[in-house]
Amino acid sequence: MNISNRFKRVRKKYGILLVLILLFIIATLLNSNFLSARNLSNISKQVSITTILAFGETILIISGMLDLSNGSVLALAGLLSVSVFKMTGSLLLAFLVAIIVAVICNILNGIMVTKFKTPPFIATLAMMAMARGAALLYTNGQNIYQIGDYTIFGQGSILGIPTPIIFLVIIAFVTWYILHHTRLGRSLYAIGGNEEAAVASGVNVNKNKMKAYIINGVFVGIAGVIFMSRVNAGLPNGGQGFEFQALTASIIGGTSFSGGIGTAGGTVIGAFIVGTLNNIMNLTAVNSYLQQIIRGAIIALAVIYDTYSKNMKMKSEKGEIEVEEDEKEE
């Protein structure tokens, strides 16, 4: 194998990780405080919520779907969770309520997509509006304060490890296991890669898509609890823009927007790339409006790169087939 081919293999396998390492080097040069334990811990805690959302997004995108409602559903689920805790004082019940609410919203997403054949973009866009409206209606647009011990979910620690990071690690493992060691994971890759072929091979497409949305709902509910706990209040307007951060993390992490490709590990790296960029911009006092432009540009570039890579792969495969056919004719 020549050096050029070796470089291509390394770039393809470790390219995203190398980008993260490069960002760490640049950030360290720009600000000496970047590599401090406190700052790295802050980055990890800050990206934990959007990374958990990104895991659900990854599972959906792999199967050819997506979720634009997770930021709004996060707000509704977290808000109702805080409300239940203030009424009952039960952390367990509050935690379960958040998951149940988010799962119900995602079941509705799944029904719209599977039963009524609504494009996932439209279905989840509608849910985004409905969930946000429900959250604002429930509190009449007011925040819920004085949430007491509820903060343990997002501000507590176990053996010195912040609870958001513990949740992140657990959900990362669950996502990896689902995608690579279960029949559901294999089915989701097959559906996203070629739905017609998946149907022909006996995969129950609608059932598996519904399962994907339910799993996403569980993750969104947990993220809602962590978010409200971290901000120390129930915010009906919370989580705005989280859906795009989760989507960006997933795509940057190597999940193909056209489906069939993606990993849990890649999503973690993608989320930390986004989190590191945000941290660099904050440390260097980049204008907040400019930050929004940069984030939008990153999403566009990630999707363009994904489309370009897939087109190049298709051309390469087509070329190989043509060469084989020419050889057979000879």
From TrEMBL:
Q: Does the keyword Disulfide bond apply?
A: no
Gene Ontology cellular-component terms listed = plasma membrane
Keywords (A to Z) from UniProt: Cell membrane, Membrane, Transmembrane, Transmembrane helix
The principal location of this protein is membrane
Is Transmembrane helix a UniProt keyword of this protein?
yes
How is it placed in the membrane, per its record? Answer: Multi-pass membrane protein
Q: Which GO terms describe its molecular function?
A: transmembrane transporter activity
Subcellular location per the Swiss-Prot or TrEMBL entry: Cell membrane
- What's the domain of life for this entry? Bacteria
Membrane-spanning segments: 14-35, 47-66, 86-108, 120-138, 158-179, 213-231, 289-308
- The name of this protein is Monosaccharide ABC transporter membrane protein (CUT2 family)
